[in-house]
TrEMBL record:
<dbReference type="Pfam" id="PF00632">
    <property type="entry name" value="HECT"/>
</dbReference>
<dbReference type="GO" id="GO:0004842">
    <property type="term" value="F:ubiquitin-protein transferase activity"/>
</dbReference>
<keyword id="KW-0833">Ubl conjugation pathway</keyword>
<protein>
    <recommendedName>
        <fullName>HECT domain-containing protein</fullName>
    </recommendedName>
</protein>
<dbReference type="InterPro" id="IPR035983">
    <property type="entry name" value="Hect_E3_ubiquitin_ligase"/>
</dbReference>
<dbReference type="InterPro" id="IPR000569">
    <property type="entry name" value="HECT_dom"/>
</dbReference>
<feature type="domain" description="HECT">
    <location>
        <begin position="137"/>
        <end position="211"/>
    </location>
</feature>
<feature type="active site" description="Glycyl thioester intermediate">
    <location>
        <position position="182"/>
    </location>
</feature>
<keyword id="KW-0808">Transferase</keyword>
Length: 211
């Protein structure tokens, strides 16, 4: 109850001076809780109250229930609850990472792009079935620079875009996937050609998006 009264005074502060005065009796507590933050404006009181509540509920609450001692005694048993561990990568997970950027409906490129989207998804499924997570990690690494899915996702969201003929003159050169914050797929007309070019790109890639 004594702590509650002190925290209420912090929450009811209306000026920075009031906030500093109401914080003063809590300095030892805040130092012990790791919540000793500088107050630069009256708005900082909300952050301070949040820190106190989080410490009191999570740390003190767990200690009161005896849970903290059990966590310290059996850390491996509790690790999955508190620590992120990458799961085995699947084709569907890799597909979900990317947003597909298609040309407007009715445009000349739309049908060709939709065909290549099918190739892209078939390629991911084949990679999973033929070589498993290691091949999917290669694809993800080539496209994003990361071989595992980050726990909070990618920002910005990776995208699948397409290499249009007007982007460059590919008439005399093989068309390979490119990657630079997004993955760009050539508009192949057959899945076999798409797969061969993608496999060659992965096998000769020297880092993120470089072949």
């Amino acid at each position: 109850m004594e702590l509650l009264e002190k925290v209420k005074k912090v929450a009811e502060s209306t000026t920075l001076e009031d906030l500093e005065m109401t914080k003063a009796p809590l300095l030892d507590y805040l130092a012990n809780a790791g919540c000793l933050r500088p107050m630069r404006s009256i708005r900082d009181k909300d952050l301070l109250v949040h820190d106190i509540v989080m410490f009191q509920v999570h740390f003190k609450g767990l200690k009161t229930l005896g849970v903290l001692e059990k966590i310290l005694r059996h850390p491996d048993s509790f690790r999955p609850l508190f620590c992120y561990e990458p799961s085995t990568l699947t084709a569907d997970q890799v597909d979900d990472v990317f947003s597909i950027w298609l040309s407007p409906e009715g445009s000349n490129n739309r049908a060709a792009e939709e065909r290549v989207v099918t190739f892209w998804r078939d390629y991911l499924q084949d990679a999973e079935e033929e070589e498993g997570p290691s091949k999917l990690q290669q694809i993800l690494s080539f496209a994003t620079g990361a071989s595992v899915l980050p726990p909070i996702g990618f920002s910005p969201t990776p995208s699948v875009q397409f290499i249009q003929k007007e982007d460059d003159d590919f008439s005399c050169t093989p068309m390979f996937p490119l990657a630079n914050t997004c993955i760009k797929l050539p508009l192949h007309v057959s899945y076999q050609e798409f797969k061969e070019k993608f496999d060659f790109t992965l096998g000769n890639s020297y880092g993120f998006g470089r072949a």
